């Protein structure tokens, strides 16, 4: 009996280690890092995917419907052989990370394309990642959710706290980081338009289980890219744009957001608590 008990304990330990290894946040993704209550990562993942989906249909209903209709027409018109080839390539090369998630393992590429959100436990305490798919813009979605929480004084999630959008992810090397930065920042800071505004900006890097790029290197590289033309300048207090950088293991994600401070740094729990306190003071 004692031996059997020991075996069971070993089995549990192996399962726990496998769970904590987490899924990778792959290059070329967009999504939202969500901080949550400790020990509630799995519950938060399931809950927040449903909440994001509800919000998305409220905010972008007609656009999502058009996307699904276009996708259906594309599938109906695609040759069967071509569909099979794409599926195999996708299964082997592009969707390998999702096979680590039991909820994603047996879904076809066509089924995944119809899902606007996929949740991942990434092996980091109190943090999960929600991958978004087109036509969802993670920055716009997060800002809308924060504004709605602020306006209504209600919070739909029990476990979620800060929502950090990343417009695109890349490989966390010096070259990969610069390429990612050019892709994300140029449309905002160097659009090529004669009406390009001059922005004041700040940079907020967050590093988790990451030792490839240093904080100073990240800030210096971004400042060089943004300030090379168009009159932009760094201002840590009165900024127009906040550049968010999320580094996790070998992945790096980036976005540019407005209203960062007025929306409590995108922390819906703090927005909710502040709204409640404001109501109590009336």
Automatic annotation (TrEMBL):
The lineage of its organism: Eukaryota, Fungi, Dikarya, Ascomycota, Saccharomycotina. GO terms for molecular function: RNA binding. SMART domains: THUMP. Pfam families: THUMP (PF02926). Residues 1-24 are annotated as: Disordered. The keyword Hydrolase does not apply. Residues 148-258 form the THUMP domain. GO terms for biological process: tRNA modification. It comes from the Eukaryota. Residues 64-112 form a coiled coil. CDD domains: THUMP_THUMPD1_like (cd11717). Residues 8-24 have a biased composition (Low complexity). SUPFAM superfamilies: THUMP domain-like. This is Similar to Saccharomyces cerevisiae YGL232W TAN1 Putative tRNA acetyltransferase. Keywords: Coiled coil, RNA-binding.
